[in-house]
Amino acid sequence: MPRLVGQRSNTGANITVLIMLIAIFGVFLEYFGLIDIIPGFGREGRFFQLKVHPINEQVIQQPNQ
Question: What is the pLDDT of residue 22?
Fold first, then answer.
């Protein structure tokens, strides 16, 4: 069994990788429209389309001419 006496921990590298993964995940969420922190950034259409339910809309029918 190897002795680990005097070995330095790799905590700094692990924290750096974790921060980078969180940043990439945040950009992914922003791009697909799940969050909106930066206006105008991301795809034109939303990833999850919002359904519009017309409520109390009046429709005026015109006679065919």
Answer: 96
